[in-house]
Design brief:
The structure is a single chain. Helices cover 54% and strands 5% of the residues. It is mainly alpha-helical and 344 residues long. It has two domains: 5-194 and 310-339, 3-Layer(aba) Sandwich (Rossmann fold), CATH 3.40.50.620; 228-306, Orthogonal Bundle (Tyrosyl-Transfer RNA Synthetase), CATH 1.10.240. It has a three-stranded parallel beta sheet. The protein is globular, with a radius of gyration of 21 Å. It starts with a strand and ends in a 5-residue tail after the last helix. Bound molecules: tryptophan (TRP). The site of tryptophan has 11 residues, from β1 and α6.
Length: 344
């Protein structure tokens, strides 16, 4: 258990779309390929975070299992001994630590979180819950319980990582420097995973917005459950522009740029290289055909492998990790409980 820890969250609720696959699932697989051996990889499902966005409660449990199966179908190696896959709500220490950390986090800090401000803005008419306001504290607990220095996340999570650092530094200052491992600074986090992350796949119909399931945009969003043919049709119908020639310019030609990014990620080449090959060509249809054919290959492969995922093996891995993590997290929680005066 002495290897340094990389900790990252696996999306829990909601059906996966192509943007999730290229922006979250693929990077996760690359992490495993690059770092297993030297690092311990905590890939956990932040299931308690599911309620901060609208969720179908009756389907949540099965959706989480389904999403995990999709990771396996995409190539996540369950047999890897350095990889731990666990559900947050199955390790009670996450919730317990969050309650303690709440008392070392300030109202002002949480009100400044951009994600809270934005989501709060959108849902103002209905209601903003305490859960949404407080979720960065739970996230800090997710990280600090395991002594994780490395937490690869997208730019939208930067403030949350910084908050986790601030909370760790604050507790260490109060109770002694060896209480918590302070996660690395943002610039170091970026250097650790290397640049190239942070690509956002756009809607095929409204390339100014990111691909999303929550906005009503079925033709702009390819679900991983779409049939290969239906997905190919969506690519062929993608919104482009009237420039008439292909250039990789996300400002002026976001639709074309989006297609080039999708193509590059699917064939595993740098986008600059792919863009170079297509640059100046006038056949938008040819580009779409090339993308559509790669998307078809991806989906038919995924569907086949999804059917073949061994669910018994998956559940065994989950439960074994959860069993172990209760111990790892429980030990850290105990130290913190001692520090704050709850344990002798
Ligand atoms: N908040 C993250 C997201 O929306 C998910 C998450 C929760 C997470 N806890 C975490 C990511 C801890 C990394 C570490 O993407």
């Amino acid at each position: 258990m002495s290897k340094p820890v990389i900790l990252t969250g696996l999306r829990a609720n909601g059906e996966f779309h192509l943007g999730n696959y290229l922006g979250a699932i693929l990077p996760m697989l690359q992490l495993q390929q690059r770092f297993a051996g030297e690092y311990r990889l905590n890939m956990f499902v932040p299931d308690l975070h599911s309620f901060t966005t609208p969720v179908e409660h009756a389907k949540l449990y099965l959706q989480i299992v389904q999403n995990l199966k999709m990771y396996v179908a995409a190539g996540l190696d369950l047999a890897n001994d350095d990889t731990y896959i666990y559900r947050q709500s199955f390790v009670a220490a996450h919730s317990e630590l969050a309650v303690i950390l709440n008392n070392f986090t300030y109202y002002g800090e949480l009100s400044r979180m951009t994600q809270f401000k934005e989501k709060g803005e959108q849902t103002k008419e209905t209601s903003v819950t305490a859960g949404l306001f407080d979720y960065p504290v739970l996230m800090a607990a997710d990280i600090l319980l395991y002594g994780a220095e490395w937490v690869p996340v997208g730019e939208d999570q930067r403030q949350h990582i910084e908050l986790a650092r601030d909370i760790a530094l604050r507790l260490n200052h109060r109770f002694g420097d060896d209480l918590l491992v302070v996660p690395a600074e943002w610039s170091q986090q970026l250097a650790f995973v290397g640049s190239g992350g942070g690509i956002r796949i756009r809607s095929l119909r409204n390339p100014d917005q990111k691909m999303s399931k929550s906005i009503d945009d079925p033709a702009g969003t390819i679900l991983l459950s779409d049939s290969p043919e239906a997905a190919a049709k969506k690519i062929m119908g993608a919104t482009t522009d009237s420039v008439g020639a292909i250039h990789y310019d996300m400002e002026k030609q976001p639709g074309i740029g989006n297609l080039l990014q999708i193509l590059a990620l699917l064939i595993g080449e740098p986008v600059a290289e792919v863009a170079g090959k297509w640059s100046g060509k006038t056949g938008y249809g040819d580009l779409k055909t090339a993308v559509a054919s790669e998307v078809k290959v991806l989906l038919s492969g995924l569907h086949k492998r999804l059917d073949a995922v061994n669910e018994v093996e998956l559940m065994r891995k989950l439960e074994a990790s959860e069993y172990l993590m209760r111990d790892v997290a429980g030990q850290r929680l105990y130290k913190i409980q001692q520090a704050v005066g709850l344990r002798p």
